[in-house]
What we know:
This is YcaO domain-containing protein. The chain has 555 residues and is an alpha+beta fold. Helices cover 43% and strands 15% of the residues. It has four domains: 3-84, Double Stranded RNA Binding Domain (2-Layer Sandwich); 87-170, no CATH class; 181-350 and 371-379, Double Stranded RNA Binding Domain; 408-538, no CATH class. Strands 4, 7, 8, 9, 13 and 14 form a six-stranded antiparallel β-sheet that branches.
Amino acid sequence: MSYITRWKEETPKNTIAKIKNFLKEHDIEVEEVNKTNSKGCYALTLILKDTNLFVNGKGTTLEYATASAYGEFMERISTLVLFRYNHKGLTTKDEGPIYINEELFFTSEEYYSNDVLRVVSDYNISYEEALAVQEYFTSFNEKLVVEELTHLVTGEKKLFPMSMTDILYGTNGMSYGNTLDEAKVQALSEVFERYANREIVKRRLTPPIIENIEELLNPQLYSLIQEIQGEELTFKIMDAGIGLELPVICVLFEHIPSNKYYVKFGAHFDINIAVERCFTELFQGRNINDLGFLKEKVYVDDLSWQETNLESILHNGDGYYPLELFKEDEHSYPKKQWGNISSNSEGVKVFEALLNSLSKKVYFKDYSHHGHHVVRYLVEGISEIHIRIDQKIAWQINIVKIVAKLKRLTTLTVVELRSVISFIESSSSREDVTLIPYFRHPIKLGSRYRYFNLILLRFVLAVKEKDREKALIEAEKYGSLLNKNENIEASLKSILQFMEQPLSEEKYNSLIEVITIKIFKFNELEEEDFCQKGECYCNGIARNYKKIKGILKGE
């Protein structure tokens, strides 16, 4: 194997065929959409039919991008992660999307008497906190669901609250492969990539530029990236090994006319694969002729901003980098010596030894089934994707409270509604962003609920406060949006007309009911038959989940 095969144990054609045959055999349907090609960097999206659940794939050919998407899909359904963020209405352990088996349901007493992950980055996680976070993913909150992982060196078992691992580690260190070793290499590469990224930002490091990159890269890859580089868009390939021999590359893309930039990281024992991943990640779903995603060369000297920015980078790869990254005349550590690893199995040995040198708390789980290999590495202190553990847990618990408050929007007091609005403001980048994440249903594109946003909540607050001027401001804001519902817009104008005349307390209460029940129809979201009305994906998700969980249980 070599870069030409991308160190895959099967051709992309065979990988795609194998996974498609598995899905067809078990009556699982997916749709391939959004295929793009930006200067030889391909991407596409794979959607589970009758749901809004999707994964993305990327590669330097359409075939590799397709294989990448199908592999990620198998990873997400094999671990059930695909459903845990999107299937919140279930209420029993037998239906709940984080159900594993009976003995892994813990009471408070069992939580504190067993070897369970209770401390992350010096933060002590209480049973009540873990259970409250679990309620965000599923309505089941009678007991805490924990998952068993194995210590990589000692073989000892440790239990992890699944709600906590989901929010603090995400899918970092989780991967699919044609073989077990291939899956392990991919998962370990991901852990190293994010760790190096985190340390370079936190410690404001200056990575050394690899000057002789042409000598190190395969001619085919070098030719591809040279096509991307031009007079306006240039790039520097940097060693992101942070002095620990991590197999990580950082590519700094710079747009000369605007003086803007973007940064991507990639990791693998083959420098070609590490570099390639930086380029395919950058142009995944993006057009090289539309560079609106580039960043200004600014870095705010504020700890809270820096922590939020770093978490954005670790979570979705988007954020700002310290200005030290742009220094050309110095570097913070020596370049890595890229070795000559000849196979995935050898790569696993080298990578696991390296990981064990970084942390003594490396845990592993093999989710493989039906000849498909999926693994997960969880490394305490290394693979977390959140920095402020206490704030993340508090935020997650507050979401559950906000969801509960929105259910009774009609009767919320002014103080309560202000607290709801304040929380959503602090969690949203724009006031026109949909409120769907705060509903208990994954809403379809054509539904009126997709047009609900912070502006409409502020309109309700203004009416509750009997402040027509504020209500008018919010109504005009809503009317200026491109993404709006015309019926709702017309209703806001009618409400404003009513507010022109003196109204009794009783009339104002009736007006609130008209807004929230007749116009917004928030009450319908809680009706038992809402999922039968065709405005959400709940039934499709539940049907697919039940089918996939049955496959994993061998039914």
